[in-house]
Write a structure and sequence with these properties.
Length: 580
Amino acid sequence: MKKSISLLCAIILWCLCPNILPAANIVTTYQWPVAAGQAKISDHYKVYLTVGGEKEQELQVLQSDPIVTLQKNDGSLGQDWLADYTKQRSFSFVSVSYDPVKRKHLTFRIESLDGYSNKDVVISPKNYKLSALNNGASVSFSVSDANKYIAVDFADSRNVVTIPVGQNGANESYDWIKDMLCIFVDPVETLLPNTSNQKVVYYSEKASESDLANAEVIYFKPGYYNLKTDGARGSIINEYGGITLSSNQKIYIAGGAFVEGYVLRRNYGDTDQGVFGRGILSGRQYMWEPENSKRLMRQLVQTGKNAIFDGVMFMESPFHGIVPTTDATFNNVKFLGWHCNNDGFRPGINSKIRNCFIRVCDDFFYNYTLDIKDCVLWPSFNGSIMTNGWQFYDIGGSIMENIDIIFPEWISMGNNRGLMMSQNEYMYNPPLDAATTVFRNIRIEGKVPGLINLKPNSEYDRYDPQTNTNPADSDKIQLKSMDDLGWMGNILFENISVERQIGDKEYGMRTNLIQGAKTIGKTKAPIVKDHPEAIWWMKDITFRNLTIGGVKVSEKNKDTWFNIDSYTAKNIVFENTISE
């Protein structure tokens, strides 16, 4: 009877949503193309899977190696900031799709091929409450739910890259994980192309420009593809391997498909594009050109409005990551970046992000009224989780809930690190039609220099009072009237836990900066011309139930961790955090 009901439900679902097809497997694993020059098998880990106590099977564990090379404007090659440390590392990963409704749990068993000790294996996020069982030559753990993005750290002294005290403002030495490992447990794949009512074209190097241009879905079957070496196809695939989607076109990358290339939209106003599946899109063959304003690639993926991103692993972009316009949807997306200008997701207003894993080396999100929930984030040494921008654009109103931030690698606060940063110009205002920016139920594991970094654009520090100019952008330094003056704030931090804050060399322990701007004699850029009393306020920021190192932060003890400028900040509130 139960089977009949389940079958009936699946039929009804297919009738209502004909592009969504049911899947029946308890777990789906993937075989990848691993010939020379294709996907790389991990040098460091083996992973085995048992489903509900049945026969164990070995999974293919893939590896991404660090990419630190950049091309300067004169054509010469250089390296990323902190490249000497980054290039010692690796990132291994394995993905499965799992249906927990079948009531059979998954047990993963992991072997270190480097002989790393099993004694102190750490599994994150700690919120998952998973424990590693030492089996002698390996460790194992079990899961009974999907939407789990699990990092496994063999906490062995040989498995670290140490950043010394003083390096880029580090207050203590930092031990970054040398050979990283993640196990991605996705839900059953339901968003699938339906050849009965969609025009599906299977990609190959022989597929014509006409066929690809007229497809509703361009389908990559399991296998290896390089869009650059496969050859240009007129207006849809350029000579560099950029594939251009029109409105209502999508790319499906099946599990087991490894695609090298990048994705472009045809026009800014395009709609209903996307990339979905369980495969991999890599930008590893492209060079980062940070000094070149006409660089080949600005994003790994660029789409228009109402874009869908589901299930795919996006990795090794040479610059920014996934950049749709507005109203995008992200589900079960995995993202890996190496370069220190490798922003993650940059969707516009009203976009939703659910159950994603992101590891980037710059900003994860811009504060464009996003709705972000149930994600695992692994920050590298540069960038913030949420940036309020570097310009005067009036952005704000995002909500981030139930987020695990694991193994953070920030070693100082600098200009742009922490859970939230701002680098706004004096014209900036929180948008009037946006709700409060909210961070709720955020758990930060490990040690960090600080939590927030809220201040005006650091370029203002280059102001020359003798010439009344700023060599960076003198036109934006001095506002012409008080009507142009903005402010920054309208933020709620609620139920935030930080395992340990250690500060940095610039601010000591008080690295949580909240600082507006005020004209002070001739040492600061004027805020507003002929109005020396003008203040760019930092205001209306509430911390509710904030815990740092197990201590609840209150009005009484906030100065232990916070640097709040009394001249330019107001209505900064710490409430309901400790008994008075």
